[in-house]
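Internal tracking record. Fields below are filled automatically when a chain is submitted to the structure queue. Please do not edit lines marked as system-generated. If the sequence contains nonstandard residues, flag them in the REMARKS field before resubmitting.
Queue: standard
Priority: normal
Entity type: single polypeptide chain
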Amino acid sequence: MHFEQRKSGAVTIVSLPQRLLSKDTDAVRNAIFELVDNGATKLIFDLAGVEFLDASGLSAIVSGWEAVTERGGEAVLLNPSPTVVRLIELIRLQRLFEIYTDEAAAVSRLSCPAGTVAIRAAVVVTAPRTVASGRRHTTTRSTVASHSLARCQSVGVGSRR
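SYSTEM-GENERATED OUTPUT FOLLOWS
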């Protein structure tokens, strides 16, 4: 099992392997934990090369998210395929992860300094999928949102009138 990591400023981008199955999860989980133990607090899990992912593979990614958020960091997903998006939606992990289709936008989002928030514009990308219901097949659309960062803005504690 092989995956790559690289840095973009303070952000670590982890390109996950083509197949992330139960037999691979311990190695992936341990590698992510090692990154976090070595100070990585802003992670992008790049899923562009992932062709197949089972629940154990998602578990390794969630474990990485838990490890980084416990240390005050953040993690987002980048470029999941429509099949992976359907699995994420089935398990409802889109509530946990922000999902990006643009690496620069994901890096910008995680690059805002503490005490600021990302002001962004949303671009929605949809992918068709066919759902079987009895004898009928219905085409629906899965949505993946990509965010473009306009700027980082300070968060105000209160306002004076």
